[in-house]
Each structure stands twice: as C-alpha cells, then as structure tokens.
Design brief:
This protein is mainly alpha-helical and about 230 residues long. Helices cover about 60% and strands about 5% of the residues. The strands form 2 sheets. It has a two-stranded antiparallel sheet with strand order 1-4. Strands 2-3 form a two-stranded parallel sheet. Helix 5 crosses helix 9. The longest helix has 26 residues. The protein is globular. The termini are far apart.
Length: about 230
C-alpha cells in the first residue's frame, strides 16, 4: 500500500509541475512563481523525467505555431494516432535535435548556472538518482515503481494529450486545428485533458471554461496564489 501511495503522490507532483511550470508558466507566460517554488518544480522535473525545460518549451511553442500542420512536431494527423499515443516521447526527442528551432522557440527559459551545468548537461543524472533511491527504499519493487514513473509523462502528456487531445472528444469552441477536450474533468493529467479550451485561449492559466469542468491544475494554482507563491501575469 505504501508503494502505491508513494507512486501516486510522486506522479501527481510531476504532472502538476509539467502543467503549471513547463506549460502554463514557461511556455505561455501565464504564471509567475515564487523563485523557491519555481526551482523546486524545475528540480522535480529533472529528478523524475529528465526533461530539459528549454527543449520542452520550444517544442510546445512550435506546436502552437503550426498546430496539426506539416511543421507540427507531434500531430496525430501527420504522424498517426498510435505513433503519437505510444511513441510521443520519441517525437519530442527527435524535435529537440533541431537546435535552431529550440533556440528560437525556447527563448526566455531558465538560463542560470544550475541549468547549464546540471539540469541540461546531465539530464539523465536525476532519473538515475531516483532509481537508486527507489531501490534503496522499496527494494526490487522500487525498480517497477521507477519504470512506471519513467513512462508516466511520455504516455499521459506526450501521448494522450498530444494524441487523443487532437483526435477525439468535445469542443467548447471552433479553432483552426483539431484540438479536443478529452473529458470535462482534468485530474489525471493535471487539467490538460481540457485541450480544446487551451487552444481557444493559449495564454490563459485556467483550462476549464464551463461550470461543470474541473481543472485540478487551477485548483493547485489557486492554493499557491493564496500563499503568495504564484501570481497570474495575464
């Protein structure tokens, strides 16, 4: 039981860090976090995903600039739904090799000593340390927990949001691309399930629109704002 609780808490923190820090904060500049909270989420993502902030932000901004068009790094209408769903992380990795694109679309992301010398230069060190920690605490079960942690973001974020979120679901408004709200209650993927809402207003830090929709990322952001750890910039 303790292993399951640990896994659910860890993966939830990771999802919230992706949707609030990487997506709504860094990519769209809709939120400004207190430096302590900002760096915690940056550290957490290094530890649990190995993702480089500048790469992720650049690829996402590129996605918005050419959504579901030929230049989109991960559209299911170009790559096929099953490829995006199960190999979305590979599409991200391939896109990150385009350094000109990364430098152009990744402007304004963290550029400090820690980013250059640890997070970007040693992106795999964090997940390796997490593996060691898991095994030390949970024994061989820790290896299974780590494996689930490693596929959590590639499947739910890179796969489900980018794939299913442009394939099937309902729409609250018409856009020039195929974005869909997967379900009206954004809990598992931090609110990112409300993907059509996001494409309707990319700069908005709130992904829910209707009274019956729920964005758990907005719930956490409201808590952070109450404690003066975050503020809206748009």
């Amino acid at each position: 039981m303790i292993e399951l609780i640990y896994l659910l808490v860890m993966t939830h923190i990771t999802i919230i860090s992706v949707t609030l820090f990487l997506h709504r904060g860094e990519a769209h500049r809709g939120i400004e976090f207190h430096p302590i909270l900002s760096h915690f989420m940056r550290f957490w993502l290094w530890l649990t995903t190995g993702m480089v902030t500048k790469d992720w932000v650049a690829i996402h901004r590129k996605h918005h600039s050419a959504t579901d068009q030929k230049e989109d790094p991960h559209s299911p209408h170009n790559e096929g739904i099953w490829r995006v769903l199960f190999k979305g992380a590979i599409l991200y990795h391939n896109a990150s090799k385009d350094k000109k694109m990364v430098n152009t679309y990744g402007a304004g992301t963290p550029d400090d000593w820690v980013e250059h010398n640890i997070y970007s230069s040693h992106s795999r060190l964090g997940v390796s340390l997490l593996l060691v920690f898991n095994v030390l605490v949970f024994g061989w079960w820790g290896l299974l927990i780590w494996a689930i942690q490693m596929i959590w973001i590639p499947f739910w974020a890179a796969g489900v949001v980018n794939g299913v979120g442009h394939w099937i679901g309902y729409r609250n408004g018409e856009t020039k691309e195929y974005s869909r709200n997967i379900v009206p209650w954004g809990i598992i993927i931090g609110g990112e399930e409300l993907h059509n809402n996001h494409h309707l207003e990319p700069a908005s830090a709130r992904l829910s629109k209707k009274w019956w929709e729920f964005d758990i990322g907005w719930m956490w952001l409201t808590i952070f704002r109450f404690f003066k750890l975050a503020k809206l910039t748009r």
